[in-house]
Amino acid sequence: MTDWKLNPDAAAAYTALETRTFRASALTRGPWDPNHQHAGPPIALVCRAIEQAAHEHGLTHIARLTANLLRPVPIGELIVEVMTDYVGRNAGHFSAHLMAGNKDVARFTALAQRESPVELRPELPGHPLPMAPLAPEASPPATFPFAGRQVGYADLVETRVAQGTFWKGPCAIWFRLRHPLLEGEAPSPYQRVAVAADSGNGISAVLDYQRYSFVNSDLTINLLRRPVGEWICLDARTALGPDGGGLAESALYDAQGLIGRATQSLAVRLRSS
User: Fold this and answer.
1) Are 88 and 73 in contact (CB under 8 A)?
2) What's the pLDDT at 3?
3) With contact defined as beta carbons under 8 Å apart, do 163 and 171 qualify?
4) What is the CATH number of the domain that holds 208?
5) 65 has which bridge partners?
6) Do 62 and 69 touch, CB atoms closer than 8 A?
7) How many angstroms separate the Cα of 269 from the Cα of each of 91, 95, 104, 146, 209?
């Protein structure tokens, strides 16, 4: 048995072993299988690497991040590889691979932009941008239904309810990291968004997760501006089709207002008894 399984008091989601190699802790464990990670932390880990690559070109805003989740991500050692596909004057396109052993478990594309201040008139339609239903300090604490069974994602994040009810349809939930993404390093605002955004299908679930799985095979995050602060809110809803498909959509907020949206394609299946 490896150390990460023996250490329920891990200090962070990941420990860096080399420049591109990381070891996951039990804090990354998801609800579907005790040996697999919740997709939020590894997506954030790749986001971190893409941010670093983009910063080398003066591109400091991650406008879009798309994760294609090819396989379950095991709790163990991961390798992150980032490629610079094209960089222009104001934007750059990047791609990345997340590998466990010699297998790709996820592939990514991202759009990074150069930040440049633009004066916006207050009378613009849709402005000022909308706020989350309730501020984080005014929102009561909440816990995931799977919390407490084993150390995992529910211990990595703190959650508060801004609107609705956890796992009972449309709701708005604030997320804040209780532990760093990477040991010894403060997570960026983009990494905080990535950790939370993959939970849209969970918090807005309309099916009993003990009877059904509704796993997403992708996640796309679009951000209109740089997030600020520790708290990220998902105002999420799930819609299901009649043939085992579904879509989870989340409006994303920080304490200053709307920052973007996230979508997930769902595969809905009855769990084997």
Assistant:
1) no
2) 36
3) yes
4) 2.40.160.210
5) 110, 221
6) no
7) 39, 30, 24, 18, 10
Angle at alpha carbon of residue 244, lines to 72 and 95, rounded to 5°: 40
The answer to whether 92 and 110 are in contact (CB under 8 A) is no
Any idea which residue has 């990670």 for tokens? 37
192 exposed, middle or buried (CB, 10 Å; 0-12, 13-18, 19+)?
Answer: buried
Residue 79 in domain:
yes
- Position 4, amino acid: W
Tell me the β-bridge partners of 233.
Answer: 174, 253
pLDDT of residue 5: 41
This prediction's pTM: 0.94
Tell me the residue range of the domain where 263 lies. Answer: 3-114+134-270
Q: Are 86 and 141 in contact (CB under 8 A)?
A: no
d(C-alpha 104, C-alpha 72), whole Å: 10
Q: Which pLDDT tens digit goes with each residue over 71-98?
A: 999 999 999 999 999 999 999 999 999 9
Domain assignment present for residue 123? The answer is: no
Instruction: Supply angle C-alpha 227, 138, 131, rounded to 5.
Output: 40
Q: How many domains is the chain partitioned into structurally?
A: 1
Question: Residue 52 belongs to what H/E stretch?
Answer: helix 40-55
In a domain, 124, yes or no: no
Place of tokens 């104001």: 90
Asked whether residue 129 is assigned to any structural domain, the reply reads: no
* β-pair type (157-163, 141-142): antiparallel
Q: Which residues, including other chains, have CB under 8 Å from residue 117's CB and lie 6 or more apart?
A: none
Residue pair 94/87 in contact (Cβ under 8 Å)? The answer is no
What is the rounded CA–CA span in Å between residue 90 and residue 233?
Answer: 29
d(CA 26, CA 255): 29
